[in-house]
Every structure is written in structure tokens, then in C-alpha cells.
Amino acid sequence: MTTGRDEAEREVGRRAAAGARVRRRLGRAVTTGRDEPEREVGRRAAAGARGSGRLGRAVRAVRDEAERGAATVVVLAVVAVALVLAVVVGAVTSGHAARVRAQGAADLSALAAASAERSGMLADPCSLARDVADRNGARLVVCEKEARGVVRVVAERSAGFGTAVARARAGPARERPGPADHGDR
């Protein structure tokens, strides 16, 4: 005959054995018949996931240590991209400015040479065109006198990453073909 005390001792033993089995399986992968293992979730694993207790603090400390300095790397990458972009924009702007200045020098040189050719003041109007181009920061590459007082010039100006080239032509309006000139005059 069993007494209540014997029953209580057996119940305590069964519970202790069940607890030992659970403690052995905590953190181990258990195969469920599928290809991927599932992790047994216990009190300690849940505490680590919530971030409470000693385990949670340890997990947070490891995670924080692994992420330390990540923002610095991102900021440095953004700054590097911004600097490269600034250099490219500066180069394009410098090239455009040099092209505009070269075109201005070519236009003025062609006008000066055409005026000198038409008035007959100088024997060589291209020398005046060269002087005007030099004063405007460009170098006269080509200066050709065409028929009836028309002058064609090519000027170039050094840019930051190359050379800007501009062409111009000047002379009397009736000698140059244009949209208003239909040959009726």
C-alpha cells in the first residue's frame, strides 16, 4: 500500500527527470522530420531575445561592439562621393567657362580683322585679330581672309582639363549667306 508521502516523492522525481530532459535539450537543434532544424525555445533563450537578464545584457554588449564605428564608415563614404561629385562639377563648369571665353575671343578677333580688312587700315588684319585674341586670353590658331572682306578665325583657350576651341566668321552681311539672304537683291 502506498501512502500519500510515497506518491508525492514519485511526483517530485518525475518532475525532476522531466526538468533534466528539458535542460539537456535547451539550445540544441531538434530535427522535426523536415530538412531544417528548429531550435528549442526555453526560458534562457526567451530571456536573451527579450534582452533581460545576464544573457540579454551579454548579447546586447556583443551586438553593440560589432556595430561600433559603422556610422563612421557610412559618413566617410558619403563625403567621398560628395567630393568626387564636386570635382566633376568643377571640371565641367571650368570647361564650359573656357569655351564661352574662347568663343568671345574668336568673335571679337573676327570682327576686328573684318573691320580692318574692310577699312584698309592694316596690311595684315590677322595680326590685329591675333592681338585681340591675346588680350582676351586666347590663342589665335587660324586666321583666313575670304572673298570680299570676310574673315574666318579659330581661337583656343586652355581649360582645366583640356583646350576649348571656338570658331568665328565676320564680314559684310551681303557677302555672307544667311537665312535672310535669298539671292533676290
UniProtKB/TrEMBL annotation:
Signal peptide: none annotated. The keyword Nuclease does not apply. Residues 1-14, 33-43 have a biased composition (Basic and acidic residues). InterPro entries: Rv3654c-like, Tad_N. It comes from the Bacteria. The chain crosses the membrane at residues 70-92. Residues 1-48 are annotated as: Disordered. Residues 69-116 form the Putative Flp pilus-assembly TadG-like N-terminal domain. Keywords: Membrane, Transmembrane, Transmembrane helix. NCBIfam families: tadE_like_DECH. This is Putative Flp pilus-assembly TadG-like N-terminal domain-containing protein. It comes from Cellulomonas biazotea. The lineage of its organism: Bacteria, Bacillati, Actinomycetota, Actinomycetes, Micrococcales.
